[in-house]
């Protein structure tokens, strides 16, 4: 049974909306929560009240360059922090695109590199990014890639530098004062230990 009783739209933009959700807490009291979502109100209501399956919003790519044996990360400008942050290549899943198609497209777009294969054993097809604030879910995809780094496929609003990390470079990056996304930090730590 849904604990959420009502959803109302607070604000809506092309890529993100804010919703007000009335819910019942564990003591039976009516409370309110603000949810950031990439989904329409109709989709959220179908997920919450009709138990319809919820597709992932985005892919996050943990790629290892097979010839260089290096982890691929990016340094990207992010408006919410008005600074650059170390991240993993990532992007929204377009329309009816599969997560595999999104991985291939985003890896090429953001890095210029070509997807070789996805490690299905080490890939999680649906995880939540920050469930206290948003319903955004991602496929966290471990894969291999090859090719040459390029920025010729970037979108106009993407300010990205590709970094290929050896294990020693990864150790130094973690010790640095760089802004690092938590998903990237965990991937870098895992890469060092592998």
UniProtKB/TrEMBL annotation:
Record has Hydrolase as a keyword: yes
Domain Nudix hydrolase: 54-187
Keywords: Hydrolase
Signal peptide: none
Molecular function terms from GO: hydrolase activity
CDD domains listed in its UniProt record: NUDIX_ADPRase_Nudt5_UGPPase_Nudt14
Keyword flag Cell membrane: no
Family the entry assigns: Belongs to the Nudix hydrolase family.
Name the UniProt record assigns to this protein: NUDIX hydrolase
Organism, as annotated: Clostridium gallinarum
